[in-house]
Amino acid sequence: MSKAQLSAFLIEVEADAALRQRVEAAADASAVAAIALERGHMFSAATLSRHQRG
User: Fold this and answer.
1) Using alpha carbons only, how large is the chain's radius of gyration in Å?
2) For the chain, how far is it from start to end, CA to CA, in angstroms?
3) Other C-beta atoms lying within 10 Å of the C-beta of residue 32
4) Measured between alpha carbons, how far is 12 from 28 in angstroms, rounded to an integer?
5) What does the pLDDT read at residue 54?
6) Distance CA 46, CA 54 (A)
7) Residues near 23 by beta carbon (within 8 Å), at least 6 away in sequence
8) CA nearest 39: which of 7, 18, 12, 15?
9) Are 2 and 41 in contact (CB under 8 A)?
10) 13: which residues sit within 8 A by CB, 6+ positions away?
11) 10 to each of 17, 26, 48, how far by Cα in Å?
């Protein structure tokens, strides 16, 4: 489920320039996960890290 949440959040990030700037400025994966949670998407920093590694 968290993978689906991550995918949905990444779609939002692509569509929203202000959100993309917040994500790019985030200090680490935990900060990105916190931003996502504010927008109703729940996934862990580990899930994001695994996604980034491919």
Assistant:
1) 10
2) 18
3) 23
4) 19
5) 84
6) 12
7) 13, 32, 35
8) 12
9) no
10) 19, 20, 23
11) 12, 14, 10
Structure tokens at 25: 């400025």
The answer to whether 48 touches 29, Cβ cutoff 8 Å, is: yes
Rounded CA-CA distance 16/19 in Å is: 5
* 3-state SS record for the chain: CHHHHHHHHHHHHHHCHHHHHHHHHCCCHHHHHHHHHHCCCCCCHHHHHHHHHC
Reported as a single tens digit per residue, the pLDDT across 20-50 is: 999 999 999 999 999 999 999 999 999 999 9
Q: Given the structure tokens 């991550």, which residue do they identify? A: 6
